[in-house]
TrEMBL record:
Sequence positions bearing N6-carboxylysine: K121
Keyword line: Hydrolase, Metal-binding
Protein name: Phosphotriesterase-related protein
Top-level taxon of the source organism: Bacteria
Length: 283
């Protein structure tokens, strides 16, 4: 079963596997997503384009608006998978970090069991893992082992995928098929992508989201090349609209209106329907 904000379901349908309806960070002042009406319009546009589910990766403490998500799902007809988890340290106040870090496992498990979170979102660093990243990954792996929830990872500028897998699937003994690596298209290192795929992890290519993500135009080619290399069953696609300036430009519907037609029908069905149903199926 897949845990949505309205309860567990056995399928998602056409899915945007990484996006944000709500988001607010100390590191991005003035770029908050906190407009329920705008979120509803975005979901309705996605639904009219054929979308049936959105996975919101906004973690604990960054205005994920768990209170608003159920009503938005009902009104739009789009299933929403919500996240728990913890982002990079710069997104929070020092007091919030100090108060939260010692009890992350408890927070994550509570969100999954009592607040219908369907995944744990954490983050790596640029080409490596700092102490904060290691701590959050330890907590995420513990929550996975207790609940079965998948763990999604923000890779900073698409880097550090193999370091993440070494920790999560090595010392922390997570099965790689429960790990979702995000932003791989932002650092299109084919060698690293294929090593991550060979390890058994999910590869999430998410964009276009912001105008300054210069690798967005490569995403369709990366999808096709990875599929041709035998990894079609491990690919996910999302929009990752994270700021107010990005909302609606091009918006979630872009994935279905402009990206999906560039893929062969079989691959499109795989990355938009079949794979999300497997990646987020853990309960």
């Amino acid at each position: 079963m897949i845990r949505t904000v309205l309860g567990d379901v056995d399928r998602l349908g056409v899915t945007n596997s990484h996006d944000h309806l709500f988001f607010a960070s100390k590191a991005l002042p003035g770029q908050e997503l906190d407009d329920v009406g705008a979120a509803l319009v975005e979901l309705q546009r996605f639904c009219r384009a054929g979308g049936r589910a959105v996975v919101q990766w906004t973690p604990y403490g960054l205005n994920r608006r768990l209170d608003a998500l159920p009503d938005l799902s009902r009104r739009s007809g789009v299933s929403i998978v919500a996240a728990t988890g913890f982002h990079q340290v710069q997104h929070y106040s020092a007091d919030f970090v100090a108060e939260s870090l010692p009890r992350l496992e408890e927070l994550f498990v509570n969100d999954i069991r009592h607040h219908r979170a369907g995944l744990v979102k954490i983050a790596g660093g640029f080409h490596g893992l700092d102490a904060h990243a290691v701590r959050t990954m330890e907590a995420a792996a513990a929550a996975h082992h207790e609940t079965g929830a998948p763990v999604s990872v923000h890779l900073e500028l698409g880097t550090g995928a193999l370091d993440v897998l070494d920790l999560l699937c090595g010392r922390l003994e997570m099965p790689p098929e429960r790990v979702i690596l995000g932003h791989l298209n932002r650092f299109p290192d084919v060698w690293a992508q294929r090593r991550a795929a060979e390890a058994g992890a999910w590869l999430a290519l998410d964009g276009p989201s912001r105008a300054n993500h210069a690798t967005d135009w490569m995403m369709p080619t990366l999808l096709v090349d990875l599929a041709d290399a035998g990894f079609a069953g491990q690919l996910l696609v999302g929009g990752d609209t994270t700021t107010a300036g990005a909302r609606g430009m091009p918006g979630m519907a872009y994935l279905l209106k402009r990206l999906r037609p560039r893929l062969e029908a079989e691959l499109a069905e795989q990355v938009f329907v079949v794979n999300p149903g497997r990646a987020f199926d853990a309960f």
